[in-house]
Amino acid sequence: MRSDSGQHPDERVWAAFEAEVLPHLDRLFRFAMWFEGKRDDAEDLVQETLLQALESFHRFKPGTNCSAWLVSILRHVRSNRQRTLSRASLVNDVDDRIAGTVPFVPPMPQGLTDEEVLAALKRIPQQHQEVILLCDVEELTYKEIATALAVPIGTVMSRLHRGRELLRDELVGYSHGAQWRRAER
Q: In sequence order, what DSSP letters do the residues of 99-139 get, joined into one string?
């Protein structure tokens, strides 16, 4: 069955999907690459995300934030994959870790390389990594992050604040370790 425009309904859906989703593919891949670390795994994650997005495209509302919608799908796909891989993994209680921190905020170390900062970011809990990446790297607003992660804005602000504290602690700890190693030489 063809419509007045001469296109089959499936062709119209596919064209709308391409127009909405493809402009966000690079950002989605960068986000997947950050979490997966390996190109093949990131490509698989993006492919599965796009498949899920296509299957649920009828729920997408044109004019809303497609990037946040895709990130939300990617997170669900990744979460389901991780749950399947490790049903009984234990995660440190973030609140316990934060409660043990000293209220003094040490200055950020100077002269850190990008690799050192990225390694420190990888060492903090994933929920904090996500918010820091979406806010500080992808420059999404708190509201867009809240939509993408399906959490309240207050949770976004809390995770961002705590994540930055944890990242600062990691970087300061690394800096002290690097200074001690230099002094031993």
A: HTS-S--PPPPSS--HHHHHHHHHTS-HHHHHHHIIIIIS-
Judge if 42 and 3 occupy the same domain. Answer: yes
Q: Which of 156, 118, 112, 152 is nearest to 134 (CA)?
A: 156
pLDDT at 63: 83
- Structural domain total, the chain: 2
- Structure letter (DSSP) for residue 105: -
The reported pLDDT for the residue numbered 183 is 41
Q: What is the CATH number of the domain that holds 35?
A: 1.10.1740.10
Are 59 and 140 within one domain?
no
pTM for the complete prediction?
0.54
Which residues constitute the domain of residue 159?
A: 91-185
Residues 115-137 pLDDT 10s: 888 889 999 999 999 999 999 88
Whole-number percent of the chain with pLDDT over 70: 76
CA distance linking residue 153 with residue 171, whole number of Å: 27
